[in-house]
Amino acid sequence: MQRPQNAEGRQSRIAEYFGSNVFDLRAMAKRLSAHDLEIMKKVMKIGGKIDSSLAERVAAAAREWAMEKGATHYCHWFQPQTGATAEKHDAFLWFDKEGNPIERFTGPELLQSEPDASSFPSGGIRSTFEARGYTGWDPSSPMFIVETENGKTLYIPSVFISYHGEALDFKTPLLRSNNTLSIEAIKTLHLIGEKKVTHVTTSVGPEQEFFIIDKKQAMKRIDLSLSGRSVFGRKSPKGQELEDHYFAHIPSRVQAFFNELEVELYKLGVPVKTRHNEVAPGQFEIAPIYESSNIAADHNQLVMKYLKSIALKHGLVALLHEKPFAGVNGSGKHVNWSMTDSSGRNLLDPGATPHENLVFLTFLCGILQGILDNSEVLRASVASAGNDHRLGANEAPPAIISIFLGNTLDKILNAIETGNNDKINAEKIMIDLGLSHIQNVAKDNTDRNRTSPFAFTGNKFEFRAVGSSGSINYPTAILNAAVCDGLAKLNKKLEAKAHNGTVSSNDLLMILRHVIKETKKIRFEGNGYSHEWRDEALQRGLSNFANTPEALSVLSNKEKTQFLVKAGVFNDDDILSRLAIQQERYVKQCLIEVNCAIEMAQTQVLPVCFSYLKLLLKNVKMASDLNLPSPAKKVVETFSDAVSHVVSTLETLKTQLEKISDGDALEHHNIGNTSHIISTHFMLKLQNLREAVDTLEGLVPHDLWPYPKYSEMLFGM
Ligand code: ADP
Ligand code: MG
Could you list the residue ranges forming a coiled coil in this record (predicted)? Predict the structure, then answer.
């Protein structure tokens, strides 16, 4: 695919078409008054409400802009709890008083729409309320135009809420958590003397991993096309052991796909910057320049959507599942996260002077406290059927939530903790500890611990436990709320020591010392994959939830979810509904995999094995009829051996098929119990069935095997 050309017929620079399909501040500046533009600027930066008259003017401007670009329709674009996005298009068509057709798009139409909410997951919330749901414009994320070969539509990023205001989507919790986190962080900053700060925002850069395989091959496997994961597949003779895929040359077919993907994303204002081969064969990564978390989350949805659709255009399939192939690495989505204040300062930047270091250390302590106290809910926020294959396996962060700070910071915190002078001189201690140099050291600190689920990387945290296929809104919202809780607890301590609303540096350091002591058990610098860590974590009292149903159970414990209510992210009913939705999703996804496996085993594997068996038996008979001399007889015996091997494996297959087809096992259970039965019994049965099928894959002649093998799919580019 050619990059867009400009008027002189040369290839346009990215900057020339970046954001060309976005109704951003540049586009608004041409169509709104200076006053209206100022309000929009503020709302886009720090949030806020828009009154109906401004909405009217913005709607008119957006329609004009969109129609100039050829758009005929608009839609509220929202994020129900399916992990994907939803949209219902309306034409700009209307009639004037005389009945003549005109184009119209009004303020109320921009502000709100009322899709039929009854077919979206609600976790039972709406059985007690009306089935009505509303989508409402989120003015902090810009509108954009989606172009297809068949027309253009104006997309309006929106929240999705129930009639009574419960959040039915993934966006609303993030917006709410950003608000409360800002309020709490401002309080912290004011208490430590940073009185000028007016707001704090969160920034996110999500690194998206995925697999690319040939479409023709993917379509031959219903497990991949329906569940996104290969439920069968014998280990390829070559996998990732030569470490020759990571950062290797991008195959030209994939490069062509990346080119088109990037052009589409640039037009939509998605600042994708990095692309490279990942560790597993067939695996790749695309990462953007970080943005404010709400926009980053919207953009990640667009990245996922375009990854899939552009791949198809190139005869490829992009697999976003966390573990499409057993035996090679799975895919995650490292969510890089930081906080920025109204002056543009990154609060997680260690800074160059002792004073800046103190701001950094204060926020670090708030984060340590928040993660320690809410680690189980954080774990639940990344729980999914797909991610179960990743977390806890030796390739991804473990299911135990801990924090990695790096050698230098760890030492600094230890030194603050053990410093035994009661009358401390903050400034002197900072200098004595080498704290005035944290910035340089932290930046140089490249001993990246890939085994940690939550790692400090220079001036941000990297939440690595997030899965590749889902929305980042939800885990980011929970992370924000957890940090908000940590800061609130810290603020209480600061308030108790404050004089005229400010805490002295010495008192602050004493408080931080205390927090560092209290939160020590959440810090871990070692190898997260090791068995020793599992044992140690258990001793430290850290939880290790091996699968989704176990991890989700924390959501029914009000004491543990209270911080979400306090942060205004959810009410108690919301949390229970999220629990029910996540459980249901887990069960359905697992059952789709199970059903794919049954169908493939029965309609593909068994018939092929029977044909092969028939052929073998014919050969055995033919050979014995020939009454061959002794050396040849030995060779012929291998036919009989092959028969026995195939027959015995088929027997196992038959037994495992019967076991896994036992639907009664799930009857009469509520969704919670069903999810536990699935994780403890059915996933094991699926594994046993897989072993039999994969053994047969190694016995049956290659050209008879009914679906593409790992060796073909992973090395086909
Ligand atoms: P790596 O794979 O080495 O971790 P990448 O460059 O692939 O690094 O991804 C790092 C991500 O972190 C990018 O999206 C980048 O924009 C983002 N990032 C960098 N600084 C910050 C920050 N202060 N806050 C949030 N995200 C950040
Ligand atoms: Mg990366």
Answer: none
